Predict the 3D structure of the following.
Amino acid sequence: MSDQRSWKCNQKNQTRLHFLWILFLCCFLLAIIAGCASEDKIFDTTAPSSPETGLPEAVYSIVPNAHSTMALAGSSKAGGFVPEPQAPYPGQYSPDYNTEEYDRIVDNPFLKALDNPVSTFSIDVDTASYSNLRRYLMEDYELPPKDVVRIEEMLNYFEYDYPDAVGDHPVNAQFALSPAPWNSEHLLFRVAIAAKKIPTDDLPASNLVFLIDSSGSMYDDNKLPLLKRSMRIMAEQLRPQDRVSIVAYAGSAGLVLESTPGNKKEKILAAFDSLEAGGSTAGGEGIQLAYRIARENFISGGNNRVILCTDGDFNVGVSSTSELERLIEDKRKDNIYLTVLGVGVGNYKDSRMETLADKGNGNYAYIDTLMEANKVLGKEIWGNLFAVAKDVKIQIEFNPSTVREYRLIGYENRLLAREDFNDDTKDAGEMGSGQTVTAFYELVPPQAAPTGIVSPDPLVFQNTNLVPSDDLAVFRLRYKEPDDGAEESKLVETRLNATTLIKPLAESDEDFRFATAVAEFGMLLRDSPYKGEASWSAVLERAQNSKGKDYEGYRAEFIRLVEMASIIANSDK
């Protein structure tokens, strides 16, 4: 009995020991699971936000000592703004998470000159589309989305040797006509506008307010860090009479640098270098403050301009495109222009930035490399920043006797109603010192086959009577001289005859032939329904044969882009 009781006791002890081991293992496993869960929570973007950073508290907890070094100078003008510290942005945007936004573009169709004889549009000197599609081709090795491609911005990326404006008008128009390379039955009509070039020493003083997006989405190397390096290029162009202010915006907006003379380069660059990315994006608040600073430092008779540098991802306060558009339209009444410099990938808001530049009487460029920064902020800075003509509109009336149909290539989002041409309240594009604008119309002459346009029903109460004429068209241009914002437009009008303009393509000037290659390239990238017999090889050959002197190498780069696009397109078949 004693042995039996001893055996039972041992069994109980072993059972307790097993139970304790099982309990220990369970606790150990629970501890591991709890630890994993806490690690997962570090990257849980749904965690509560830190009141200091605007980032999830768990994210902030892993970088508690990495506050931004951005120090915004308090001033009476800025209301003594001092921001809360911002934590660095943990690289949210990746190639797998793309929220880039582009407005849809529908190629301009052919129109019957008998039914729609008048074409009206606003000029455009923006170049953002070209450098952006270059990024797709050369960095991502893929053809850009169709809506990235704006043919007018591709055309106007390049310099052309157009005659300078002389006489009473600050702009000059030239014309050319030749068979269309992609459709031998059609003609290609070029309108070339050149603005008067003013020597840098003769340009009025500039009041420049840089509005820098320093929010968390600007953390990547190709955003705020690229902008800071680009500003060193810009600073070298500043003159003592120029003045620079800097406004930054993240969770809220503040004055970083009060208006400073252009020869205080080290002070200006130190202010740019102090900026670090972190927090949300109060773009609307930043725009309001920047315009206030520009107005307070307004130079009468000078160049007063806000330069917005951003990826366009506004998310605090006034943030919708329509709200921002109204805000900019209201601010331009003070005769302060707006330039937009876009940067970055992944969350890039092209459609928003193009709209803001358009409504702000300014221009829009995309900076993807330091080389592009050198082009925009170095070589072409005064052309981009100093307007010699504003609200420039073009109107062409085609003669139905010599033009059966026509279509404007590009400028889809710059079209104006016929009556807008004479309406001085309607906004249009600006041209800077020495800038050029190129536009092409594809024409269908009467002897060519019609394109299949469906004709409307005939009018009951009106008849169309043609005035006998062999002329091709009447060209009209309206512009205002930049002044106090209440200027009346001036009219330039020219009657054009096809006989005096037309030349075989091979005898056309190099600029004409190169520009046709650019337009054809754009139609191929867009897979335009009007591309006819366009081909990569034809574009390449014509671009190579019309490269010209090409001192800056931009046309040689274009040839490489065509080669790359051809390789990508053929490899995707």
Observations:
- The chain is about 30% helix and 20% strand.
- Confidence is low (pLDDT under 50) at residues 1-9, 35-95.
